[in-house]
Amino acid sequence: MLSWNEFLIDWVFVYGPLSIFFIGLYGLMTQKNLLKIVISIDIMDLGVNLFIVSLGYVKNGVAPIYTSKNLIFIKNFVDPLPQALVLTAIVISVAVSAFVLSLTIKIYEKYKTVDIDKLNTLED
Amino acid sequence: MVNMIILAVVFVIGAFIFQVTLSGFSRKVVARIQKRRGPTVFQNFYDIGKLLFKESSISHGFIFDFGIWMALGSTIATLLFMPVGGWALMPKYANIIVIIYLLAVGSLGMAMSAVGSGNPLASIGVSRALTQMFAYELPFVVIAVLIIYLAKSSNILKIIEYQTQNGWNLFSMPIGALVAYISLMGMLGKKPFDTPIAPAEIASGPLVEYSGKYLGFLMIQHEFATFIEVGLFVHLFMGSTSIIGFLIKYIIVYISAVMISSVMARLKIDEVVKFYWRWPLGLAILQAIITLGVRF
Amino acid sequence: MAFTIGSLIYSGSIFSVIIYLLTRFSVKLGSIFTTVLFGLYVYAIYILKDSVSISFIHLPGAYNLTFKADLFNWPFLMIGTIVLFVSALFSIHGLKSFKSAASFNFLSVLVGTSVLGVFGANDLLTLFIFWELMTWASFFLVSMGKKEARSAALFFLFMSMISAYLMIYGMFLVYNKVGSFSLDVIANNWGDLSDIRGRLFVLFVLAGLIKGGVWPVHVWLRTTHGNAPNIFSSVLSGILIKFGSFIVYLFVVFFPAFYLTTKGVSSVGAEKLSHPILAYIGAISIMIGTLSAIRQNDFKKLIAFSSVSHAGYIVLGIAFGTGSAILGGLSHIWVHALTAAGMFLSAAAVYYVTGTTNMDEMGGLVRKMPITFTTYLVAIISVAGIPPLAGFVSKWLIYQALIAKGNYLLTFIAFFGSVGSFLYVFRPLATVFLGQLPHKYDSVKEVPWSMQLSMLIVTILTIVFGVFPSFMLKPIIRIEEALSIPTVKIEGYSNIYTMLTQLDMFLVAIIFGIGFIFVTILFFLLAKSTKVEQYEQYTAGEIVQEISTTPEIYHYSKNYYRSFERVIEWAPSLEEYYRIAARHISRFYDILDGIIFKSGIPMYVWFITITILVLLLIRW
Amino acid sequence: MVKNPVLLIALPLIIGFFTAFISPFIKKGYSIIAIFTAAITTILSSLLFSNSGTDLITYPIGGWSTKYGIYLISNIQISGLLVLVNFIAFLALIYYSIKERDLGSELGYSLGFILSIAAVNGLILTGDLFNMFVFIELLSIGGYILATHKGGYYSAFKYVVLSSIGGLFFLIGVISIYNVTGLLSLLYIPKTESFHNLPAIFLIVLSVIWVIGLSGESELFPLNMWVGSVYKNTSTSAVVFFASVLSVGGIYAIIKLLSLIFNNGYAAIYRYIYALGLITLFIGEAVAFKQKDAKKMLGYSSIAQAGLIISLVALSIKSSLNIDLYSSAIFQLINNIIAKALVLFGLGVIGYSGFNKLKGVGKERREVALLLTIGTLSLAGMPGFAGFWSKFYIVKSLVSNGEIVFLVVFLFSALFEVYYLLRLSQIILFEPQEEEVSLEIPSIVEYVILTMLAAVILYIGFYPNVIYNLICKVGLIGG
Predict the structure, then answer these.
(1) Where does the pLDDT of residue D308 fall: very low under 50, low under 70, confident under 90, or very high at 90 and above?
(2) Cβ separation D422–C154 shorter than 8 A
């Protein structure tokens, strides 16, 4: 019988984010609409970010904070670095999303379509 | 040196008289085959003389003349390298390759002169003549090279010497002799290989524009060339050291060729090529294989 | 004045820019300058004859370009510079109506330096660098030609690059083994290279065959020669394809023989130097070149295929391995350099006045261009191997060697090529120079003096080398003696002795001359002939003016050997197979482009995914 | 003077933000700021170059230990590459300011250029994995902006999608290695015990993920599908950036990862990457051969070169840090970006890139066409030009290592490369003109740019060892 902890680590923290990632990938492989492609990328972003956050998980972990009152070194600190990294990654993905959405608008303005098949014939 | 020059002059004149007489004789032979009486034996002398001293003749420009000089001049030059029996004017240089190629200069000169006349029939004739040459040279070369190899020399005198020691090549390689004989027919332009001349078709081809002394020169050239070609065959296959023997064999070969040709009909030029490259060439290679197989 | 190859190359590269600027200023001046430069090359190489000099161009760093002029490469340098000089002389007037004359002269000088660099190289690196220099310079030169020249140049480039890449691989193979590019070092260590010798041989000889235009890699010659600028064709066929022969000479004769000689072998026999497969490749090349040349309708393409056939003679001679065969093969390089130059220059002269090289459209030009005609006539007599011209000597030497060894098949093919060459060389003579002169060429004149002069030089050299073959053979015999290859004896200027027989070219020429003069005198003693107009012909009773309104109709030039072509029509064309292969490669590349790059984003993602899966799942 | 290379990254960023802030007050002259930035980074990198030696020097930032903190690494090879990249960026910006300033918003694109410079410098210099990720993303964002310069929005879209996927892969790799070693420092990860205990399959997956993650920027297969259309549909200055600046960042990042992290004996890894590089080389040359647009063609040629370089580096590490192979790869990288920049500038000066429009323009723009031909000849590896020597050294190292398969693939693709490059010159110089094209008269500055690059190519062509010896002396970073 799977313990709750193993279930959490394996299925929620690893396979969960990965499956979200693959859903995004599936979207990229199948969708022909630019907006849907943008959404697929965002889904992939989400999956990766969740994966990063989940790697920092430590069972019964506490916040990795030293204060002047609490100078004791505690073994089950949660790793703070992935959380710091994920912030950067999220910022970047937001920026990219914004950019790519504006590109989509521009493309629509220029070609009056967001369908990939049509765009391929219009611009190569 | 003076001796050499006298000998050369005598040789050329002798060859001329002999061959022209013989071709006159051959006309008689043909006539008899065709149940005619035929002209006199000396008819060819009359013809040449008449043509040479004719008052009027037509020239088509410098190349037309130049080609004639080149044709006759180089044929005479070739003749000087040609041995007769065991005798040769320049024994050291009686080289078969030189003779074959020098003879080509004569043909080239004649072809140039003929095409230089500007008559398309002449051009057609020349193109056929060159094609025919390409056809008959190949089987001939295979056999000639075989003989050169056996004699270990391309000097004709050495080849004759080889035959006096080992017997005639005619007997040691009969297929080769047959091939060379067929090639000889082509060289001489006898029927069925008279496609380049084809009087009824292209009005004698290369000769169409010639008259007077031009035609006379070309007739002389033709007689000399015949002498060289038939002579080569005799030397290669029936080599003998005496001049008289040579002349007898020569007469036999030449007259037989004339006789055969008088009962033949003309082939088309692509048939000529196909024929030579199918039968004589194949037989020549067969002969080469047989001879080499026997030797090794 | 001390010349070295290095200093000549320096001067060439500096003058190339000056000549470019001069030609921009005045075409004639630039070409004269080029001619003077190449004339200087000829002179310098001539006085370098008996010197063994090694010169350097220092590249900063580990590699130097080293050059030598010694008896082993002198003949190549000599003939190369002569052809360069002659075609530069031709270009003084020949470039008049040429659009990019400045670039032409600039690149010509680069090609000139590359000739010095390749033939004068003392190490493989130098050889390779100048080889590639020649490739790109001549690529641009060929591009300047006719309409189809651009694609022809690209094909030429492609084939040249294949040969260059084969060479660069071989070059480093040998470098890894002996630690040097130097030819002497390689030759001295030739015996220790046994494990890579086979590979080296294939790489370099194949490279040489491609460049030399030998079957089955001759396919670039037709289009390249046919479409290159006319003046450059003579250089291309005269020298540049001899680069290939030079490489073959190095690897088939020079290295093994030099090694054996340094080992103290007193006589290097044919068994050590003979390469039967290569000899047969040369023989096939003779046949293919001859038969293809007969079928050409374009003056220059015909000469191109004759080059294929003659490259075959050269390879056959060199690869056959006996002293007489190598002598014949190497001297054929001289012969063909001159005759190819003569033929191409006369083609260029014809093009200069008529603006075409299509043989159908011409005729009777001998009336207008006697010098050009003479050049062509002498060149073809030499090409066909007819005495008393140079072509006979080299071919005769090859025949002697083949007959002496009793190789029937090769002898037969060698004769085949020779007899066949009568056919194809006669076709331009008949259709371009002889026959009826069309009205459109009524006003043409003989080409200007510089072109006449350059053609005369070629003609005279061909005759001199034929009548006095020792000028041509002695330098090559010196090579063979230095390599202890038993060779033929030569006495005086013209008497050649081989195992089988002897030949005196001067005597042949004299007798030929006597016969000719005798007949000519006789001709003039007889009654004078009347000269008639070109139309006055025998027409079987028709009146010329009625049946032919133009001379073109009365000139037999189209399908000259149609009846013969019918006999060989069934033969497949190698060129066609190459074209099919190229089309397949091209289509495959199109498919790659279409699948990978032209598809949309979903396909891209599929590709990415598949790539990752393939990379991860295949256990390497 | 200033020895810390951090200014190479910080200064462009600071200038960029500053420019953005002052944009409400000044309306023009942003391109001058961009040129100014590139000039400063060029000078700074030359200073760094003159001060650096062959040893790898670490420059910690903020006083942190290099094991845990952010730091930069540099030696004479890295700084030399920086000089070159910044210099070409400088030339491209000059070209931008005189010719293409009005193509789009001057502010936006100037910022894009400045951002790209910062990102490339950062990517080449950084010694830290997460920083590397940030710079990759920054580089991509700079690239996204540049890709839209001439309104090629759809091609930019492709680029964004592919690059984002690459970035995600890279991030997954970074976080995985952090999870097992607890470090992000390139120099220290291989020294940890936990790294040594990692199963081989983990390292293989990791290396594949990283290389594929970086393949978007370095133009390697499989994320390089954007290259052709972006090259075709953007401005000359932006294309020069892509070909000679941004791709260098990507390629050098891969080189750093390979040589610093995986440098001791995981032969399997190198087989993958080597194969990937060879496939890229072959496909790139094959597809470039078929193009009818010069810029697109050069784009695919860049792909092929990236594949070649990565293959060589992978091979050099596989055959126990072979300096020859590595040096020839770096030499090829340098020669390639210079020559490619020259050809692209030349095309920009002419103003067209479709073959049908380029036909015969050399007759009117003779000097430009000749200078451009120097570029194509160098790319084709003809003697007298820089490219010959890199090809020479590549073949030399391949033969001496017995890599015949590689050699055959390389030479086979090089055949087609020579063909299409010289065909470009041929079209420009010799083809008869078919369409009427209106050509602008080039300014003297444009000639100066072209001449400068051509002179560099010729100089290297005659004195290859000046640069090659330097590359050889350093050898592999971390080697």
Answers:
(1) very high
(2) yes
CA atoms within 13 A on the CB side of C466: 29
Distances, alpha carbon C76 to alpha carbons B90, C242, D452, in Å: 36, 9, 40
| B2: pLDDT strictly greater than 90 | no
Q: Tell whether omega for the bond before C276 is within 30 degrees of 0, i.e. cis.
A: no
pLDDT digits (tens, 9 = 90+) for C511-539: 888 888 888 888 888 877 777 776 667 66
CA–CA gap between residue D244 and residue D369 (Å, rounded): 20
What's the average model confidence in pLDDT over D260-265? 74
Residues B281 and B268: their CA atoms lie apart, in Å, by 18
Average pLDDT of D432-458?
Answer: 88
Q: Where are the domains of chain C?
A: 5-513, 577-617
Return d(Cα D357, Cα C160) in angstroms, integer. 29
Domain of B130, in residue numbers: 2-295
Q: Do the Cβ atoms of D233 and A123 come within 8 Å?
A: yes
Contact list, C419 vs chain B (CB under 8 Å): 133-134, 137-138, 141
**Alpha-helical runs (H) found in chain B:** 2-33, 43-52, 62-81, 96-116, 120-151, 156-166, 169-172, 174-188, 199-202, 212-237, 243-262, 269-295
D touches B (3+ CB pairs < 8 Å)?
no
Q: How far apart are CA D116 and CA D246, in angstroms?
A: 7
**pLDDT above 70 coverage of chain B, percent:** 97
Q: Which domains does chain A have, with CATH numbers?
A: 4-122 (1.10.287.3510)
pLDDT at D455: 93
Asked whether A116 and A32 are in contact (CB, 8 A), the reply is yes
Place of tokens 């040589």: D259
Instruction: Provide the domain count of chain B.
Output: 1
- Reference D90, options D63, D121, D61; nearest CA is D121
* Spans of chain C, pLDDT less than 70: 1-2, 58-62, 270, 500, 534-536, 538-553, 619-620
Strands of C489-491's sheet in order across: C489-491, C495-497, C502-504
Model confidence band, residue D410 (pLDDT cutoffs 50, 70, 90) = very high
Mean predicted confidence (pLDDT) in D179-194: 85
Residues C45, C81: contact at Cβ < 8 Å?
Answer: yes
Q: What DSSP line would sit under D244-294, residue for residue?
A: IIIHHHHHHHHHHIIIIIS-S--HHHHHHHHHHHHHHHHHHHHHHHT-SBH
Q: Which residue has the tokens 């009359």?
A: B46
Inform me whether the pLDDT recorded for D341 exceeds 90.
Answer: yes
Query: What's the gap in Å between the CA of A44 and the closest CA on chain C?
Result: 13
E strand or H helix that includes residue B58 = strand B58-59
- Rounded Cα gap, residues D382 and B26, in angstroms: 73
Question: What's CA C311's distance to the chain center, in Å?
Answer: 7
Size of interface A-C (CB pairs under 8 A): 23
Whether the bond between C229 and the residue before it is cis, its omega within 30 degrees of 0, is no
Half-sphere exposure of C542 (CA within 13 A, CB side): 10
Where do runs of H (alpha helix) occur along D126-266?
129-147, 153-181, 193-196, 200-218, 227-232, 236-240, 247-256
Non-local CB neighbours of D101 within 8 Å, separated by 6+ positions: D31
- pLDDT tens-digit profile of D153-164? 888 888 988 898
For residue D1, pLDDT beyond 50: no
C442: helix, coil or strand?
coil
Residue (of D274, D259, D263, D142) closest to D221 by Cα position = D274
Rg (CA), chain C: 26
Tokens of D427: 């079209």
Using a CB-CB cut-off of 8 Å, the residues of chain A touching D156 are 103
Predicted local distance difference test score (pLDDT) of residue D43: 92
Contact partners of A by the rule of 3+ C-beta pairs under 8 A? C, D
